[in-house]
Input
Amino acid sequence: MVQLKCPETGRLVDIGDVPPEAHLGLALWSRPVACPHCGKEHSWTSGQLGLAMETLRRSPEATRVLIEDGSATALP
Output
C-alpha cells in the first residue's frame, strides 16, 4: 500500500497497492487525489510512484510506503 500524508491533518491517505515487481513507464504524469480527511485534493505524481516502488524493492518486508516531503519511508 502506498500512502501520502495529508498536509492539513497529518493523517494518511491510501493511494493504492503497488507490487514491488511492477514496472514504471517513462511517462510523466500527475493526478489529483481526493483527501477524505481535509476535503482537498493532493497531487500524486509519477515521480512519487517511482520513489515508492524503489523503496518497496529495497524493503521487501514492508507492507506500506509513506510518501512525504519528497521522501519515501517503508513501513511494516
User: Anything to note?
Assistant: The helical segments are 46-58. The chain has a mean pLDDT of 85. Strands lie at 2-5, 12-16, 30-34, 41-45, 64-68, 71-75.
